[in-house]
Amino acid sequence: MTPIDPALVAQLSAVAVPTLSAMLYARGLRTRFLHGIVPANPAAARLIAPAVTIRAIPVREDLRDAVLKGEAPNLHRRFLSEVPPGAAVVFATGGAAHTSVLGDIIAMAMHRKGVAGMVVDTGVSDLPTVAAMEFPVFHGGGSAPVPSGAAVMVVDRDLPVSIGPVAIFPDDIMVGDASGVICIPRAIAAEIAAEAVEKEKLEAWILEEIARGAPLEGTYPPDAATKARYKAATGG
């Protein structure tokens, strides 16, 4: 896991996920927003962290039973215990929303060890308790009391995974807020963040113009005259 430059964190902290999505979309990256993945607590801290990936597949009962008997390692627990502080755990199961790979105890353990947050495509056990935490958890369903061992088994980590149609590579930058989660390729993250900051400055100015009575037509999206007024007003 490669830490994110603090200057980039500051920029990403200043812009909303929908703005980042718009910037990526303009570059032709139209599969970066994780549709259907929602925050357990929309008021929790924003997630900005490198992805550490864990992959699960449908369970095979004989292998699950070997884990329960202590004859095979519990990769679910091992991989979570080895997640480094500052990481965003991206836990992909192929969309098993009827089950859960975490509940309040795992969420608290990850929070206490300094993990930045979790993104899972399952439901969440103990959802009311998890939703009351400041720890950012983004999930693919509501409360899911079915234990993960009944449906999926963890098989590997630190490899590319998919959540829905979104391909997520280790060290991609995950950004989550009340709107949801987006995955930004590391190589272009600085450019996307800078563009998003400028877009939000422009849109904040446009909002003020509309509030003062400017017509929607020509103001949003801004035509050439509106852009010229913005440049004159802000020096941008």
Task: Give a verbal description of the structure.
By secondary structure, the chain is of the alpha/beta class. It has 2 domains: 6-188, Glucose Oxidase, domain 1, CATH 3.50.30.40; 192-234, no CATH class. It is 34% helix and 22% strand. The chain is built from 8 helices and 12 strands. It has helices at residues 6-13, 17-26, 61-68, 75-81, 104-112, 127-131, 189-211, 224-234, and strands at 38-39, 47-58, 88-92, 99-100, 117-120, 137-139, 146-147, 152-157, 161-163, 166-168, 173-177, 180-184. Strands 1, 2, 3, 5, 6, 8, 11 and 12 form an 8-stranded mixed beta sheet that branches. A two-stranded parallel ribbon has the order 4-7. Strand 9 (161-163) and strand 10 form a beta hairpin. Helix 2 crosses helix 7 (189-211). It is elongated. The two termini are 36 Å apart. GO terms for molecular function: metal ion binding. Its cofactor is Mg(2+). Keywords: Magnesium, Metal-binding. Substrate binds at residues 103-106. InterPro entries: RraA/RraA-like, RraA/RraA-like_sf.
Q: Which labels suit this protein?
A:
236 residues; alpha/beta; eight-stranded mixed beta sheet; two-stranded parallel ribbon; 34% helix; 22% strand
